[in-house]
């Protein structure tokens, strides 16, 4: 066995070496009496007691001992990594000296105390215990402090670079991108302890792209709202429509004012009074006619204090209030009709804590992706029914999309687009043939001809064609799976005029659709899992023009009109990210957008990110 170097460098290295050979060969973490007597007879250097205490702690499963991991089996890998990490430093401490914590120890702790700003749980880092150890100068406490700081940093590195959710609580089919990026934490630990500026090193760990940083700022804002009491619940009653008078408009105006949808109260009251500017953000709460207005929530340019509202019977649903309601409905992907019906009222009454949780969950999701999202890429937000084409930080194209219906959920994964196909075939998946096509053929023997669907004996290239009349549709059952059904290009093709391929095991891709009327719906879950595009020609023109291909928009239109199939292979594969985000911040307006959890994934992610009960895999790495 290789001995710790600090043993060989002390005054009596031979005696110390014998001591450790005896203690380690016994298989016990405790030093036997003979070895202990040998150590006591040797003059110790100032750091030797700390080194010895660290060595003993590292031998006793510190990850479990200090409650960073609850499963002994899982901790083995972490403990082995820690032992090697300290062994490479001759078991010298990284964060303390014999006189107490170093400057870097205080820097690390100051960063860890603010992890809640990243949407992370402070309890995860054992901050209270670490803080209690700071004032002690006992050797054993200093050794424990050093090791706990290293464990806390190890945890923080994983949370920032891989995600904090317990991976064993996440269904891989639902959260395939969770922990898909694996960081070399041991190498990162070495970088941290050797960094010239530890604070700057730690500052670079979280994602720095707009999507994450804007949510981080929004988290501060909504927590401030919560600290000011959130907003009052609007009672149920008759549907509120523009032009109506209703006492609940007072609460509606306050609700919209707090979140910035309504800019001032003049929409239902006399002109506002000009007030002298006050510092921002101040903790001031101004009350008018029992309406609390949280000045701290407003941008610094808002120095108008709303006047006293008129009597209840004079409150009216004005056009300006209508615009505020429609803005709110837009942010929550509701029908933008300005009518306060059941859905809009329920959404208005969602507590501020609900919004805070959504923001935290979506910050976690962004930690699963590469932190430097650079170059040209396509992102499809499944929950937001929206595609965005980006180049570095610039949004270059965006459009509404249709995603999979519940039961045919669009999966989440990252891939690269390799080609665009104009006038594509639709190779019908066996599940759709078995569950839908067969019944339609039984009802209408001419269905396949009407839909221009051909049948081939198998899925191999060049397979012979089979006539529909040669198949016993009534009794075929699962035997239909052997046949390859293909819809020809042209009007009515389920894929429309184009498809955008990034070959994957899920058989999911982007494509056009003949049913463009569905894009008028706000909740667009209609497909079998693929993503239907509202403007496929625009996307094709955008992709090909930026791929150094001399393909003009009018040439694409001519190719579509020809009904002839053509494939454009991309010179540069284009990254595609199918993501699931229920909260985002608009780049142009800075407004927060919140979406329904259409597949019920938020609750599952919350259980993995903040498990209330200890599980064997909690804090597993």
UniProtKB/TrEMBL annotation:
It comes from the Bacteria. The active site is at residues 511, 530. GO terms for biological process: cell wall organization; peptidoglycan biosynthetic process; regulation of cell shape. Residues 376-561 form the L,D-TPase catalytic domain. Pathway: Cell wall biogenesis; peptidoglycan biosynthesis. SUPFAM superfamilies: L,D-transpeptidase catalytic domain-like (SSF141523), Lysozyme-like (SSF53955). InterPro entries: LD-transpeptidase_YkuD-like, LD_TPept_cat_dom, LD_TPept_scaffold_dom, Lysozyme-like_dom_sf, Peptidoglycan-bd-like, PGBDSf, Transpep_catalytic_dom. GO terms for molecular function: carboxypeptidase activity; transferase activity. PROSITE patterns: LD_TPASE. CDD domains: YkuD_like (cd16913). Keywords: Cell shape, Cell wall biogenesis/degradation, Peptidoglycan synthesis, Transferase. Belongs to the YkuD family. This is Murein L,D-transpeptidase YcbB/YkuD. It comes from Candidatus Electrothrix aarhusensis. The lineage of its organism: Bacteria, Pseudomonadati, Thermodesulfobacteriota, Desulfobulbia, Desulfobulbales.
């Amino acid at each position: 066995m290789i001995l710790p170097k600090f043993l060989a460098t002390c005054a009596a290295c031979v005696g110390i070496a014998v001591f450790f050979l005896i203690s380690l060969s016994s298989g016990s973490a405790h030093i036997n009496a003979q070895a202990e007597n040998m150590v006591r007879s040797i003059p110790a250097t100032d750091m030797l007691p700390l080194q010895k205490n660290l060595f003993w702690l590292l031998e006793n499963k510190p990850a479990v001992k200090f409650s960073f991991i609850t499963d002994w089996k899982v901790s083995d890998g972490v403990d082995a990594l820690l032992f090697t990490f300290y062994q490479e430093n001759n078991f010298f401490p990284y964060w303390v000296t014999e006189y107490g914590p170093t400057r870097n120890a205080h820097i690390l702790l100051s960063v860890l105390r603010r992890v809640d700003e990243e949407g992370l749980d402070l309890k995860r880092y054992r901050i209270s215990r670490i803080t209690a150890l700071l004032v002690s100068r006992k050797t054993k406490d200093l050794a424990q402090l050093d090791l706990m700081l290293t464990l806390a940093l190890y945890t923080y590195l994983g949370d920032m670079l891989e995600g904090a959710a317990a991976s064993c609580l996440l269904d891989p089919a639902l959260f395939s991108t969770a922990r898909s990026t694996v960081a070399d934490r041991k190498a990162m630990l070495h970088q941290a302890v050797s960094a010239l500026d530890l604070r700057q090193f730690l500052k670079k760990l979280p994602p720095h792209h707009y999507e994450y940083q804007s949510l981080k700022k929004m988290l501060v804002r909504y927590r401030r709202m919560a600290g000011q009491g959130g907003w009052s619940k609007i009672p149920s009653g008759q549907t509120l429509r523009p032009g109506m008078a209703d006492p609940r408009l007072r609460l509606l105006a306050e609700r919209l004012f707090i979140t910035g949808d309504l800019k001032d109260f003049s929409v239902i009251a006399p002109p506002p009074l000009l007030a002298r500017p006050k510092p921002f953000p101040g903790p001031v709460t101004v009350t008018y006619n029992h309406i609390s207005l949280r000045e701290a929530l407003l941008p610094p340019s808002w120095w108008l204090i709303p006047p006293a509202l008129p009597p209840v019977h004079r409150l009216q649903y004005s056009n300006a209030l209508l615009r505020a309601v429609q803005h709110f409905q837009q942010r929550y992907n509701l029908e933008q009709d300005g009518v306060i019906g059941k859905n809009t009222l329920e959404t208005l009454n969602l507590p501020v804590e609900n919004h805070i949780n959504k923001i935290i969950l979506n910050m976690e999701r962004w930690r699963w992706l590469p932190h430097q999202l650079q170059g040209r890429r396509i992102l499809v937000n499944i929950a937001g029914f929206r595609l965005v084409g980006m180049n570095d930080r610039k949004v270059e194209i965006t459009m509404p999309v249709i995603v999979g219906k519940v039961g045919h959920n669009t999966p989440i994964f990252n891939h690269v687009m390799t080609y665009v196909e104009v006038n594509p075939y639709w190779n019908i998946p066996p599940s759709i043939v078995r569950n839908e096509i067969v019944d339609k053929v039984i009802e209408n023997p001419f269905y396949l001809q009407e839909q221009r669907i051909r049948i081939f004996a198998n899925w191999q290239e060049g397979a012979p064609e089979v006539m529909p009349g040669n198949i016993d549709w009534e009794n075929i059952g699962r035997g239909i799976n052997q046949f390859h059904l293909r819809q020809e290009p042209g009007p009515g093709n389920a894929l429309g005029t184009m498809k955008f391929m990034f070959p994957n095991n899920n058989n999911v891709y982007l494509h056009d659709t003949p049913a463009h009327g569905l894009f008028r719906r706000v909740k667009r879950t209609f497909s079998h899992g693929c993503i239907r595009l509202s403007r496929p020609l625009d996307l094709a023109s955008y992709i090909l023009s930026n791929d150094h291909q001399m393909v003009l928009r009018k040439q694409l239109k001519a190719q579509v009109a020809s009904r002839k199939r053509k494939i454009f292979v991309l010179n540069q594969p284009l990254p595609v990210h199918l993501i699931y985000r229920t909260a985002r911040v608009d780049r142009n307006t800075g407004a927060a957008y919140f979406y329904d959890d259409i597949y019920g994934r938020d609750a599952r992610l919350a259980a993995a990110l903040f498990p209330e009960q200890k599980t064997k895999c909690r804090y597993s790495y």
